[in-house]
Amino acid sequence: MKTIKRNDLVYPDLSYQIYGCAFDVFAKIGDGHHEKVYQRALAEAFKNRNISFKEQVYYSIKYNNKPVGRDFFDFLVDDRVIVEIKKGNRYSKTHIDQVLNYLKINNLKLAIIVNFASDGADCKRIINLIS
Questions:
Q1: How many structural domains does the chain have?
Q2: pTM score above 0.70
Q3: CATH of the domain at 42
């Protein structure tokens, strides 16, 4: 595997692998599927490449150290990168804010939104500058 040499990226090699899995999923199953189908296919792609991941990761939302809610995100890859799957041809502010919240609450640095659109898989990196 080729090593990425940039010093200004968060987890560049792992990101490259995640992108490759997303592109492979789209190449093999195409567009027009539900997010759940893409999630299952992406889980298989991670397994095929021996990438460590957890699926449908639960986290608690706390106020004054007391649980007030809970939510789930699609994947936690290598205990470092949140991967969230979306469908459509654009990234909405709501999706970006949602993923940024996941990062902050879980004290993580990087999330990747994988958007399965009509013309391919597109990935957007979201960085938590506060962690």
A1: 1
A2: yes
A3: 3.40.1350
The span from the CA of 99 to the CA of 91, in Å, is: 11
pLDDT 10s per residue in the chain (131 long)?
555 555 668 999 999 999 999 999 999 999 999 999 999 999 999 999 999 999 999 988 889 989 999 989 999 999 999 999 999 888 899 999 999 999 999 999 999 999 999 999 999 999 998 85
